[in-house]
Fold this protein.
Amino acid sequence: MSALNDEIHDLMRFAAQRSMLPRFRNLAAGEVEMKGKDDPVTIVDLEVEAFLTEALTRLAPGVAVVGEEAVHADKAVLDHLKHQCWIIDPLDGTANFAEGKEPFGIIIALADAGETVAGWIYDPLKDRFCHAQRGAGAFVNGEQVIARTTGQTPPVTAVSRIFLTPEQSAMVDEKLAPHYTLVDIPRCAAEQYPRLALGENDVSSFQRTLAWDHAAGVLWLNEAGGKAARLDGSAYRVDQHDAPGLVGASSPAIWDAFVGRALG
């Protein structure tokens, strides 16, 4: 797996240096469009996905590629999530990038029969490369990491209200706010998952659970010794990406306490 990690790292870094970094805070008119409300796409998303799709197909001929933008163009691409496939988020944090803000990154996962078997998360500004293989631990720039909490009381909780209903937002205020220090999410899974293992956040809840956002991060956090799972405790599967609700935490105990309060 070491050779594959190196190959993926090289691909991600090259894509960032060729397409992403030169356009950061330098997007031209017409290089940003809206796919929907709060859902922009840039020329960088399209270029990076096209490059990675071609490169990964050469790397593993016959393995399907599920890219965020390919799915937007053709929902039938999602059928590949049931089988062996690569999953690509070519520019995670597009809204940040389009506004000239950090953070943003590239996410790649390898899945088989609905389960993530390996994942890679790259932050080009920090040159931080997170990777994990199922059953082999979690790593940052080649060094194994063990999830740690913030050590703060109350625990630090990152919550997004963007996709919450008014009732769900009221639940956050009633059940969670009295027991946690609430902070904003970075609007970038490539940043949020590392925060949950590196002592910056203790817990985060996600309403949308799209495979390209979460497949790699869930595996990486669990391999680090944290916990990411559905609200009922079941494992996250990439072929159940339409199911709502996912919680990640820096430790299983913090996960249990948070979910207990959220559902209690």
User: Anything to note?
Assistant: The chain has eight helices and 14 strands. The longest helix spans residues 2-20. The chain has a mean pLDDT of 94.
